[in-house]
Amino acid sequence: MSENKPKIVVLGAGYAGMMTTKRLMQQFAPEEAEITLINKHNYHYQTTWLHEVAAGTIDVNRSRIMISDVINPKRVHLIYDTVKKINKADKTVQLENGKVDYDYLVVGLGFEKATFGIKGMEEHAFSIQSVDKSRLIRDHIEYQFARYRNEANPDSSMLTIIVGGAGFTGIEFLGELAERIPVLCKKYDIPRRDVRIIDIEAMETILPGFDEELLNYAKDSLEARGIEFKLGTMIKEVKADSVIVGEDNEEIKAGTIVWTGGVQANRIIGESGFELTKGKVNVDATLRAPGDEEVYMLGDCAWVMNNETGKPYPPTAQIAIQEADVCAHNIKTSIFGGTLQEFSFDDKGTVASLGGSDAMGTVFDGNKLYGLSASVMKNVIDDRYLFLLGGPMLVLRKGKFRPF
Length: 404
What we know:
By secondary structure, the protein is an alpha/beta fold. The protein folds into two domains: 7-40 and 81-113 and 264-346, FAD/NAD(P)-binding domain (3-Layer(bba) Sandwich), CATH 3.50.50; 121-260, FAD/NAD(P)-binding domain (3-Layer(bba) Sandwich), CATH 3.50.50.60. Helix content is 33%, strand content 27%. It contains ten helices and 28 strands. The protein has helices spanning 15-27, 50-55, 67-70, 121-124, 131-150, 168-188, 212-224, 267-271, 317-336, 371-398, and strands at residues 7-11, 34-39, 43-45, 64-66, 76-80, 83-87, 92-95, 98-101, 104-107, 111-113, 126-127, 160-164, 196-201, 227-231, 235-239, 242-245, 250-253, 256-259, 263-265, 281-282, 288-289, 292-297, 302-303, 305-306, 311-312, 349-353, 359-363, 367-370. The strands form nine sheets. The protein has a six-stranded mixed β-sheet with strand order 5-2-1-9-22-21, with helices on one face. The chain has a five-stranded parallel β-sheet with strand order 11-18-12-13-14. It is globular.
């Protein structure tokens, strides 16, 4: 590649990174820019499917897509390596096995677990954070069933699963557990009543952002399938086999503890000198990091302000995908001239899966959906992303076509 071409480097192959790379390929001819995508693994995974991997309701390979299957290696330089640090002063990215320089940088390094200083959370709680961590949760839960079945005097708490947090990921994970646990009970010949699934949430409600009718539907659906809720209850401490909760410091024994209560930007962002607000970078309306006009922060690394509410948009997959369009446009504009575009979220609605054929949410200007129709819409939303990323063939290979 010619040395005088602008070098555009994308860090991370999540939703934002993958879609930005796709859009950059469309915005630039091969001779106009050198595009590099750097990712730890040679695959992209559907973050919004990881709760299913963790519960064991889908195979791990269903959630993974080989990067080279959707990003042409002849158009984009693919580097599979671990990012160690961003050096803003000399505009380089330090990798585990080398260094890459850039003219424009797109940071989509994703999230990591935010523990909020809760004692023992980092050491003892699982998190739905990556393919491997999600697979570990799945295997650990089944291992607890095998132990319970084979030990002479098993502790009943082996089959207690505690989920910390009742946000989107937590509720969707509970829905998948509600489907998976009866299957494991049958497999290991264990009565369903021996298993407890407890959700612990500091707020008085589940699913902030949904209206009362929708969240009541979700809670009723999950409780009907054996999920217990302890709302308005803070986790004070996590131990190897229990959690301490509430003002009275109640101890609840458990064989599996999964934290879904919060995420923050990859720690590399802060270590590289970017200013963080509650674990993320407040970007401007054009998605650039303050004081670094050549650096774009997307997805879980960034807070993007909603000017109507004065609050940041929640960093969802839908927003990350839309950010890619603005980012690619603005990089091209920065190189060739024109007007930078400001990000404006086009809310197409939000649907939360509750396991199996149950779901609930809103679509198209607040229209509410429940049950089967919501579940079908959830699949449509997931398949739409696959179509945008890899066209109809990817939808056919990886899409969700559940028989109802």
